Structure formats: C-alpha cells, structure tokens
Amino acid sequence: MPPTVARAADTDAARLQVLRVLEKQPTLSQRELSAALGLSLGKTHYLLHALLDRGLVKARNFRRSDRKLAYAYLLTPAGLREKLSLTRRFLGRKEAEFEQLQVTIAALRAELAREERP
After folding, report:
1. Which residues touch 40 (CB under 8 Å, ≥6 apart)?
2. Domain of 91?
3. Exposed, middle or buried: residue 93 (CB in 10 Å: 0-12, 13-18, 19+)?
4. Which residue, 5, 53, 64, 70, shows the most beta carbons closer than 10 Å to its own?
5. pLDDT tens-digit series, residues 36-65
C-alpha cells in the first residue's frame, strides 16, 4: 500500500475509533478519550477537533458532579452516517487483508510441506 494510502487508512481507522467510543461514552473528557483510544492527548485533540470542525460531532456543556464544567461530545446525524461509511470501508480493507493473509499462509504451508518431504 503506498504511504499516502496507508496514512489515509490509518486516519480513517482513528476517526472511526473516536466516533465509536464517543457514541458509547459521550461524556468522556479528552484525557479519558485519549486513554480509551490508546493515543496521545495531542493526537486525540487533533482528531476530535477535526470531527467537530466537520460537523460530525458537537460539544454540549454540562456540569460534572465535582462542579466543573465539562462537555458531552455527541455524534450528529452526519457523524452517524460517517461512522457507518468508515465502518464499511474499514471492514472491506480488513476482509481484503484477511484474504491475502490466508493466501500467504497457504503458500507458506505448501512450502513447508515441500521442504519437509525426504
């Protein structure tokens, strides 16, 4: 896969991951979202703000029990459509990778079988 295509696929996968986590847990702070994603806080901030800028996620203020103002990150209808689209593309890529992996495994097994014959 060319580097630009690989980067786009990685970005799509990260955006999908953010959308999936926020759909289930919209009240996560950016720090908590970062931990849930296994990404740096800076990368999480970048991804989240890109989604906000594109109108895929909206932020709503609410008060937490510790009396601090916080945000709920809610997927917009466009965000839900984008999540579905990203899921389809991600699944297609993973299925293609799986098929290629099966071909590679079969070839390696055949090679081993040939090598092990006396």
Report:
1. 34
2. 3-116
3. middle
4. 70
5. 999 999 999 999 999 999 999 999 887 665
